[in-house]
Amino acid sequence: MIRSIAAAAAIACCLVGAADAKPKAPPRAPVPVPAPAPAPEPSFQPTAAAVKAHMTFLASDLLLGRAAGEPGYDIAANYVASQFAQWGLKPGGGDGSYFQKTPLIGFNAASEGSLALVPGKGKPQPLAFGVDYLPSANPTVADVKVDAPLVFVGFGVVAPERGRDDYAGLDVKGKIVVVLRGAPKSFQTEERAFFGNGRTKRIEAAKRGAVGMITVFTPTASRVLGFERQKLTWQSPGMSWRDATGAARFDGAAAVPIATLSMPGGAKLFAGAPATFDDVMKAAEAPAGDVPRFDLPVRLKASISSTIKDVASANVVGVIEGSDPVLKDEVVVLSAHLDHIGVSKGGENGDTINNGAMDNAAGISTMLEAARGFATAPTKPKRTLVFVALTAEERGLTGSDYFARTPSTPGKIVANVNLDMPILLYDFTDIVAFGAERSSIGPVVAEAAKGMGLALSPDPVPDEGLFTRSDHFSFVLTGVPSVFIKTGYANGGKEADDSFRGSRYHRPGDDLTQAINYDAGAKFAKVNYEIAKALANAPERPKWRDGDFFGTRFGK
Question: Could you say which architecture CATH assigns to the domain 108-307?
Fold first, then answer.
């Protein structure tokens, strides 16, 4: 009985369940589970130890100051090539090697020469070597003899965009132009550097038929550069390079550089002139620099000799090919000069080797760290990166001029990031980005600086014309947007920079005995790495800003 009741209850239960049951829905498709986002690529962190290792070798006495064309430079070049090879960078120098052979020409003043002022009446007045003048040299002709009238052309600036022509109303054909060193202080700092550059002045003089050029120190130039200091290096060689025809590349060569005059020497040219030398100097120091210009009442008779010789050296070139099939044909160049000034005759405290630790073992070492970062990254940049250790920067930006005009790697150079003489003697907290705001590189630099907590500062030393004194300028002259980063003046930077330039720059004291902050070196490598990485991966290549001075002149 109990079993029957239980069975009935079970049947009833089933019937109720059946009555209440609803048609079954078709099975749902499984909800896809999103794949986990790929982990972000780890950010490259340069190391102080690596920067120290490179600098320790490159600034050692073994390399004898790395002068271009000397064995010490060649040892340094082989060291850089070995680092490129170790990290798998492709040789980019041509002929399957890392070395771009550079047909250099070394030239320097062969003697003190002779200069004399010849008035309309009376005896010639000789100028005194080392007091009134220092002779110039050039790579195109060994012996220069000239006897011609003098014309004072102020700063020698021709700037149509500013409505300024210092040659207006003057006939300089067949004459020697006298130009003031530098450019008006009211000019924007980078444009001021361009117009103050000797090459720019020489080109303008040659265009107008001048047969020679004399440069005169101003109070500002005397304070910043110093005639007395130049007297110590008056026979230091400059360098040019031979083109495919064998001719020396020397823009404006027809306006032969004859000499640089001290202020006392320059004053002698203005005796009996329409304006006094003091009045001219006063006008030159004013912001507008609007000096009177006129024929001088004397001729100059000069005899100058140069020693000219061929020099064997090379740029060192390593390549990381871009990963994008289209953008890899566009090239971002990271550059730093490998050379320094070699051994001094006199020296200081028995030391004659100019080791060039800051200038520019520091720049090369931080560029090598950036190269290691790109070489070891899991993902290669879209554009091709070319790393160049340049020769003969100290002799006239010659290695960079040769590479920029005759690149040894395929593809179109679209940007240059140049690393030169970071002052690694303090923990820098700001940077100066020369040239950045002239192109779309500007926002890239700002973003990289912001990401590292670095402030951007204006040029703190506009009188020095730094924009035209480092290798990025060679790329600018070929129309390539470029940037040159300098460690700034904040957080003790001014004191460190002033002390270095005052007692160690281009002297034996720029060696490894300095209190070098290698952590600052790693930071400097990092900011340049981030800038180059952003440029290499950007959707569009850098472009000059509309109407930019350098973009308009050279970017076309």
Answer: 3-Layer(bba) Sandwich (3.50)
